[in-house]
């Protein structure tokens, strides 16, 4: 079975796809792409959309972490990414949708807002990546790409503040999924991988760590992405940050 996964280093949905391929025991090659430039590469590779993760597997082209989860269960049913029980499957699908549609983007916006202020941490998020050029050179010359990526992700001051205000409620939702057993159980599922990577990426940001550490939502990230690459030192204005949860 031939599989090739196109990623942007540090991308949490791309990391989700890689975790699911590993879970299925499917060997794959990884193609690391530079942000913005990735769009032209994906188009040249025949993908209909310009976003990662993008997977070529046995002649199929599949994009998006949720699309990939379903395709992998079809291609290799065991071990399954979704429970067989209809009610449990519905719960996992709801959590996976939440992770994809609600949790993922605010974390991404905060990270790109940080890169606008300091692009040097980009180097740490590219650890182990093969970009075709030295990582140091990519960081030194990456100012325009950072600006474009921040614009594409709408990482404005206003949106960063909105993302921070939303974060406590988003973390409460993840805590609830852990509490009711939808994620965090002995057998991982698609929602575990979808949510763990967003929390794992958030934990690479020093400003967000105090909001997450010690909560149930941190456990899936510690379990599935304990060494998420990247480190963003404090960069957000302290006045923007919500108070950590207590009790």
Describe the structure.
The chain has 247 residues and is an alpha+beta fold. The protein folds into 2 domains: 3-75, Glutaredoxin; 86-240, Glutathione S-transferase Yfyf (Class Pi), Chain A, domain 2 (Up-down Bundle), CATH 1.20.1050. The protein is 53% helix and 7% strand. The chain is built from 11 helices and 4 strands, in the order E-H-E-H-E-E-H-H-H-H-H-H-H-H-H. It has helices spanning 12-24, 37-44, 65-75, 86-117, 122-125, 135-140, 143-152, 157-179, 190-203, 209-212, 218-224; strands at residues 3-7, 29-32, 54-57, 60-63. Strands 2-1-3-4 form a 4-stranded mixed sheet, with helices on one face. A hairpin with a 2-residue loop joins strand 3 and strand 4. Helix 1 crosses helix 9, helix 4 (86-117) packs across helix 7 (143-152) and helix 4 runs parallel beside helix 9. It starts with a strand and ends in a 23-residue tail after the last helix. 40% of the residues are buried. The mean pLDDT is 93.
Key terms for this structure?
2 domains; 11 helices; Glutathione S-transferase Yfyf (Class Pi), Chain A, domain 2; about 250 residues; globular; four-stranded mixed sheet; Glutaredoxin; alpha+beta
Classification by helices and strands = alpha+beta
What does the largest sheet look like? Answer: 4 strands, mixed
Count of helix runs? 11
Measured between the Cα atoms of the first and last residue, the distance is 49 Å
CATH class of the largest domain: Mainly Alpha
The shape is globular
């Amino acid at each position: 079975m031939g599989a090739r996964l196109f990623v942007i280093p540090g991308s949490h949905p791309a990391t989700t796809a890689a975790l699911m391929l590993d879970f299925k025991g499917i060997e794959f090659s990884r193609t690391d792409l530079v942000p913005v430039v990735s769009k032209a590469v994906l188009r040249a590779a025949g993908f209909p959309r310009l976003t990662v993760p993008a997977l070529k597997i046995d002649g199929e082209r599949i994009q998006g972490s949720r699309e990939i989860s379903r395709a992998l269960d079809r291609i290799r049913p065991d071990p399954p990414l979704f429970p067989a029980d209809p009610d449990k499957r519905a719960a996992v699908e709801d959590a996976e949708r939440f992770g994809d549609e609600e949790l993922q983007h605010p974390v991404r916006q905060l990270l790109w807002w940080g890169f606008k202020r300091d692009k040097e941490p980009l180097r740490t998020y590219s650890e182990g990546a093969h970009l075709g050029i030295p990582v140091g050179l990519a960081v030194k010359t990456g100012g325009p790409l950072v600006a474009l990526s921040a614009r594409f992700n709408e990482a404005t001051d206003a949106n960063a503040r909105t993302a921070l205000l939303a974060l406590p409620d988003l973390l409460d939702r993840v805590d609830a999924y852990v509490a009711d057993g939808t994620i965090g159980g002995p057998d991982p599922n698609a929602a575990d991988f979808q949510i763990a990577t967003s929390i794992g990426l958030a934990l690479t940001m020093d400003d967000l760590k105090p909001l997450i550490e010690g909560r149930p939502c941190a456990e899936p990230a510690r379990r599935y992405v304990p060494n998420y690459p990247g480190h963003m030192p404090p960069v957000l204005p302290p006045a923007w940050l919500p108070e950590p949860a207590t009790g």
